[in-house]
Every structure is written in structure tokens, then in C-alpha cells.
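We were asked to recover a plausible sequence for a given structure. The inputs and outputs are reproduced exactly as logged, with field labels preserved.

PROBLEM: sequence recovery
POSITIONS: 658
GIVEN STRUCTURE:
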């Protein structure tokens, strides 16, 4: 006889993030970049812990093994011409030298900050471990004041491990497979993008005063028909020498808001509780792109930490603030009281050679293309994007559905739950002050029909609301509504479906009704707003077939058109609130016989050039902008001139017309 016992998941507390303000220079702070060429060594794939056992971090890597130059930030996979580096599984090592000026030794703290290392990082300064971090795509930092040599050369060493297992976020498996001359260690995963690894985002040294502004948490509100704005500083946490309440009573903050012209429009002084409320008359709210003639309006907030006894300035930190409100119910989502219809993309941080490395030129091109095509939103599929891209979204009025790294989640267990909650906590801690972030996505295509999926996502969704109840919670679900156990715990239902591609490929006549029926089923079951978060078809750039045929540009165009018909019917029902194409641009995947150089569902190529469907999508998105948002912006090149529609010739035709 067999007895089956379900695994019980417990909702345990997790360690929360502190600090992590984006490095910015001010009167009291200095910032230095450590980006550039680092030294790089790959561990033996069969002996990934050798570097730890032999303590490679105690000396220059070049004294241990021959090193190669490796750019930071960048994924290491596509930089060289070697299979062994591109497909490496396990640990790699980086190091470089840097100087710390003698002036930094006086009444200051020195910090080392990484924007992202994928997946796990161990960081050493002059042979001493200063920080360990697990979770790619999110920042981490450590104070290194006591580890550096001032006025001298210092060494930083990083061990990076890209291995994914069943308790990492995202999940993967490590297997051994026989090869011609032995055994290979192979990383497998179910998600459909390449597992790029390395130091993906910028590395900074920065200073703060001994007593410093450690965290800032604020919310915004509007009243009187959006003419008066409020910025509420819920928390300004002070770090450093303030170790008790009595000491904190000797400090206060002065806060002011400046408009784009640099004019102070609001200011206040806090008491010792370090909270404040600023009122802005004749406020300029933050609006999404195409909803206002001045989208993405940002104020600058200046926070001055002051010694209450001497009135001496202790620290200064500045950040951008977009003043807006969010609200939602069972049929709509609103910004500043106005209903929103999302039109955008799922995306990837992915490019040739750099992989997932931060590339400011590429990022700028992407935002120009988003605005060119008339999109007002995107989802950070399937992981948090760079802090620089979040700032860009704020400034351009592009709404963000901010997604954590949980993709294809399955085999639910206690360790996975705690790491999933940690991923959400780190994400919200980093992005809570961005006006562009309008929704949290707690997963992409989780296996929500599995045992324990319901309780698992109930815990994750409720924890997300506990951290931030000002934004709705969603997840992109691919399981059908009858089997799904997670959607009931979401605020907004997002679903992925590939009619005409994975389902009934080539059948354009099996798309429109199926979308309408599935979206309606989701709403009727849960009585919540619905978004189609993924649809599309792989398309080879330059492949033209008539009549349309799968993989051709004609087929992608017709498939989109059939989806548009469904969306327009659904929009009339009010509870259908958005359409997201998969994908913005072609991207790299693991090698597969179903992928020719990667996933080709992009509206743009991997080099960011438009396929034929981009022009069709552009016409639709701007048409929706005019219809839904009363947008008056019509690009002059939206329609190509064909004819003025008039003719002085007779409408009768004869052989002379041939």
C-alpha cells in the first residue's frame, strides 16, 4: 500500500534588503565606475570549486592561471570564439585593480555596488570576502571601508556561478551526459532564452558620509481634478552612527521638489521621525506616452540630512519623482483616474555579442523604437531589467509591468518559495519609487496546475501586496483556466497563448474566436481585468511567401491582424485592458532544432530593424492612441502616399490603359 502526503508549504519570514540607493554624486557623495576590461578565468567544468579550495582570491588571478580580458558589463558567453566559454556551466572568476584616494579615508564610508551578476556571486576585496549574493538581475552592495587600502592599489575578485537547479530563481537542472571522450556537465532549463552569465551591469565605488541617507520610500497622490499633487515620504532611513532613537532625535531632513525649470515648487522640514509630506499646487502629473502632450513629467526631489544641533549638512541625495495615482477594480485599471488600455511588448535584455550586458546605446535605440511604434508599455519578461532602463521609462512615460525572475516555475517546495519571496522583495525594494512601474508580475508561465501551486502563489501574491499595496499583482499564465490554481490570487489576469503558431500552426481561421472565448472565460471565472500578455509567430527576416505560410513575414502580418480583430471585439467589453506582442525583438535561445539562431518572434530583428509587421503594428498602436487616449500626435510618415483619390480621367477603361 502506498501513502501519498502533500508537501505543506510554510509562509516563513525572509531576510529583507537594506540600502541600495542608486549611486548618485552630490555635495556629500562621490561615485566612480569600475566598468572596463577585467581579467577572466574559467574554472574546470568538472572541478568548479577548485578556486575556492585553492583560495584564488588571495592573489592575482594571472598568478593562478592564464587570464583573458573580459569586458564589464557584458555576458561572457559570446565574447570569445570558444565553445567552452559560450556553453560553460559552473564558476568563472574575474579580477581587477583599483585605487582608493587618500581623501576617502576621512569621515566617509566606501561602498562597492554591483548592478547585477548572474546567477550567484562571491566578492572579495584584497582577499577578504565582502559580500555574497544569489539572484541574477538585481543589485547588491557592501561597505568596504575597512577592507580597502587608502592611497594605494587594491584588488577586487569576483567568483560567478551560472548553475541553475530546482531551488534557484529561475529553475534548471544539471545533468551528466556521455561524450566521445568522457562525460559532459550539461545545464538544461525549460525557459526559452539563453542563460547568459557574468557581470551584467555596472560596478561602482561610491562614498557616503559616516551618517548618511540609507533608504527612501515615497508615494504620490493627486486631488482637485489632478491640479494638486502630494509626495509623501513614508520613510527616510538613516544609516551610520545613528544607533538609537536618542541619537536620531539630533537629526532632521529638509526636502524640496524642483520642476524641470529648476524652480522649487514645494519644500518642507521634517521632525525626528524623518517623514514628510509635500504639496504641489498646479501640479504636472506623470502621464503615459500618447496620453498627454508632456508625458513622463518628472520632478527632482532633494533630500538634505541636517544635524539639528549645529545645522550642519550631513548628506544630500537627489532622485526623480513622477506624481501619479493608480487604481483598479474588476473591470479596469486607471492612472490619474483615467482608464488605461495597454499596448506594448514582452521584451528581453538581449543583443549580439554583449548578451544581457548593459548597453546604453542599445537601450536608447529600444526606447526610440518603442515610441516610433506607438507602444505605451512593456513587461520586463522574464526578470528585472537594468535600473537605467527603469529611469528611461520614467522619463519617457512608458508603463512597466515589472516581473521577477520566476519563469516556468514548477516542483513547488519550501526553499523555492523563500527564494521567490526574496526575489520579489529585492525587486520591490529597488523599483518601488519608479512612476513607470504600474504592476508587479510574480511569474511567467508557472506550472499552475500542479499540486501546491495554489498555496504557493497565494503566499507570493499576498507577500507582494504586503510589501506594496499601491500596485496590482499579476502573473503571465499559460495553463488553461480550468486547470489553473493561481489566478484567483491575482488582481489582474494575464494570459499567454499562441493560436496559429504552437496551437494549430498555419491556421489563420482558428485565431480570433479562440482568443475571444479564452479571454471571456478568464474574466467570467475570476471577475477581474484581463490582458493578453503574449501572442505571436516566429518570422524569418526577408522570407516572403504568397499565399502566406508559417515563418514568412506575410504570415506574421496576417496572424497579427487576426488578433487585432479579437482585441477590438474584446475592448468593447471594458474588462479587456491590454495587448502585448511577443516579442519586441528576436533573441538568443539555447540550441534547438526548432530555433534557427534563436527565437524569431520579434517585431524587430536582433539588430533592431523592423520586419514588415512593425509597420502594421505602428498603424494600430497610433490608431488606438487617437481612439482611446485622444492623442493628437500623428507621425508624418505613418502612412505612405498612394493617391489623392481623384482623377480627371473617365472611369471607363479601355485597351489604352494597359
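RECOVERED SEQUENCE:
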Amino acid at each position: 500500500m502506498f501513502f501519498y502526503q502533500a508537501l505543506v508549504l510554510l509562509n516563513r519570514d525572509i531576510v529583507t534588503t537594506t540600502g541600495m540607493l542608486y549611486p548618485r554624486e552630490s555635495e556629500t557623495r562621490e561615485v566612480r565606475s569600475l566598468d572596463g576590461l577585467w581579467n577572466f578565468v574559467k574554472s574546470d567544468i568538472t572541478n568548479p570549486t577548485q578556486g575556492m579550495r585553492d583560495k584564488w582570491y588571495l592573489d592575482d588571478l594571472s598568478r593562478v592561471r592564464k587570464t583573458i580580458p573580459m569586458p564589464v558589463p557584458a555576458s561572457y558567453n559570446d565574447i570569445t570564439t570558444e565553445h567552452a566559454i559560450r556553453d560553460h556551466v559552473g564558476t568563472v572568476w574575474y579580477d581587477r585593480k583599483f585605487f582608493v584616494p587618500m581623501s576617502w579615508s576621512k569621515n566617509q564610508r566606501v561602498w562597492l555596488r554591483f548592478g547585477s551578476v548572474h546567477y550567484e556571486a562571491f566578492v572579495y576585496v584584497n582577499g577578504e570576502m565582502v559580500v555574497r549574493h544569489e539572484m541574477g538581475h538585481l543589485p547588491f552592495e557592501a561597505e568596504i571601508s575597512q577592507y580597502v587600502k587608502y592611497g594605494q592599489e587594491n584588488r577586487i575578485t569576483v567568483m560567478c556561478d551560472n548553475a541553475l537547479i530546482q531551488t534557484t530563481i529561475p529553475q534548471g537542472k544539471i545533468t551528466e551526459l556521455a561524450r566521445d571522450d568522457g562525460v559532459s556537465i550539461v545545464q538544461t532549463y525549460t525557459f526559452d532564452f539563453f542563460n547568459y552569465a557574468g557581470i551584467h551591469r555596472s560596478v561602482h565605488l561610491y562614498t557616503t558620509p559616516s551618517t548618511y541617507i540609507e533608504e527612501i520610500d515615497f508615494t504620490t497622490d493627486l486631488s482637485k481634478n489632478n491640479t494638486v499633487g502630494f509626495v509623501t515620504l513614508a520613510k527616510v532611513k538613516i544609516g551610520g552612527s545613528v544607533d538609537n532613537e536618542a541619537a536620531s532625535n539630533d537629526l532632521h531632513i529638509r526636502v524640496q521638489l524642483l520642476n524641470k525649470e529648476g524652480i522649487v515648487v514645494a519644500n518642507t522640514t521634517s521632525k525626528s521621525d524623518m517623514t514628510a509630506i509635500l504639496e504641489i499646487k498646479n501640479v504636472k502629473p506623470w502621464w503615459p506616452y500618447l496620453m498627454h502632450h508632456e508625458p513622463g513629467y518628472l520632478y527632482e526631489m532633494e533630500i538634505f540630512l541636517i544635524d539639528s544641533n549645529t545645522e550642519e549638512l550631513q548628506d544630500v541625495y537627489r532622485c526623480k519623482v513622477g506624481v501619479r495615482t493608480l487604481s483598479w477594480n474588476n473591470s479596469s485599471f486607471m492612472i490619474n483616474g483615467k482608464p488605461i488600455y495597454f499596448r506594448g511588448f514582452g521584451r528581453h535584455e538581449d543583443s549580439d555579442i554583449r548578451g544581457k550586458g548593459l548597453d546604453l546605446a542599445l537601450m536608447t535605440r529600444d526606447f526610440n523604437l518603442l515610441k516610433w511604434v506607438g507602444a505605451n508599455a512593456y513587461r520586463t519578461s522574464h526578470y528585472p531589467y537594468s535600473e537605467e532602463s527603469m529611469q528611461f521609462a520614467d522619463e519617457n512615460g512608458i508603463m512597466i509591468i515589472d516581473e521577477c525572475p520566476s519563469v516556468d516555475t514548477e516542483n513547488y517546495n519550501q526553499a523555492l518559495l523563500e527564494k521567490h519571496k526574496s526575489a520579489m522583495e529585492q525587486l520591490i525594494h529597488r523599483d518601488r519609487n519608479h512612476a513607470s512601474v504600474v504592476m508587479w508580475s510574480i511569474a511567467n508561465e508557472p506550472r499552475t496546475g500542479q499540486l501546491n501551486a495554489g498555496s504557493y502563489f497565494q503566499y507570493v501574491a499576498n507577500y507582494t501586496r504586503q510589501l506594496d499595496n499601491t500596485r496590482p499583482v499579476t502573473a503571465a499564465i499559460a495553463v488553461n483556466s480550468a486547470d489553473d490554481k493561481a489566478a484567483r490570487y491575482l488582481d489582474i489576469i494575464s494570459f499567454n497563448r499562441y493560436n496559429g503558431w504552437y496551437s494549430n500552426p498555419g491556421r489563420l481561421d482558428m485565431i480570433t474566436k479562440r482568443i475571444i472565448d479564452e479571454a471571456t472565460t478568464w474574466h467570467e471565472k475570476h471577475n477581474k481585468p484581463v490582458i493578453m500578455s503574449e501572442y505571436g509567430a516566429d518570422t524569418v527576416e526577408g522570407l516572403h511567401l504568397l499565399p502566406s505560410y508559417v515563418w514568412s513575414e506575410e504570415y506574421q502580418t496576417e496572424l497579427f491582424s487576426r488578433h487585432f480583430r479579437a482585441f477590438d471585439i474584446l475592448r468593447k467589453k471594458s474588462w479587456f485592458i491590454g495587448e502585448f506582442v511577443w516579442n519586441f525583438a528576436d533573441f538568443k535561445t539555447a540550441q534547438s532544432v526548432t530555433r534557427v539562431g534563436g527565437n524569431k518572434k520579434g517585431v524587430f530583428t536582433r539588430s533592431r530593424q523592423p520586419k514588415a509587421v512593425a509597420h502594421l503594428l505602428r498603424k494600430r498602436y497610433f490608431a488606438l492612441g487617437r481612439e482611446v487616449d485622444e492623442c493628437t500626435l500623428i507621425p508624418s510618415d505613418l502612412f505612405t502616399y498612394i493617391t489623392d483619390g481623384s482623377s480627371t480621367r473617365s472611369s471607363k477603361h479601355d485597351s489604352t490603359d494597359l
